[in-house]
Amino acid sequence: MEFKELFNQFAHHGVVEYISIRRKRAEPVEVVDGIMSIESMGLKGDRYKNAGGPRQVTLVQAEHIDTMSAFLNVERIDPSLLRRNIVVRGINLLALKAKQFQIGDALLEYSGDCHPCSRMEENLGKGGYNAMRGLGGITARVIRGGMINTGDLVIPI
Question: Is the pTM for the entire model greater than 0.85?
């Protein structure tokens, strides 16, 4: 099998477990069951909503949150502490590099890695920044707007 074919092989689709928006810098996130994504902008009400920018939506894997918890020796990390918009389970987000993917009615496109900021040390405690390194998820652009809901599938195109 050629590498090009391997890059398009997924065992199954992912699923959205959690959605949040950040209305203002340094304020708590707002957890929602569903959110409207706006083409070329981002998520309605989110502070990172910006025309044409690469960081319109942030996503992180639930499996990576579990790994961060293990690194920090805590039972569970509240996803709101990571300040990402969408938590998904069941698909390797890094495998979506250079791809478009559908979540609910929206079509997104991988736009980069989402690295942790220094705030993670404050949010997660001592070692939080390093626990999150390499596990911070991805950023995406909204190619086609639409509703994204908890429970929606993450489908590579």
Answer: yes
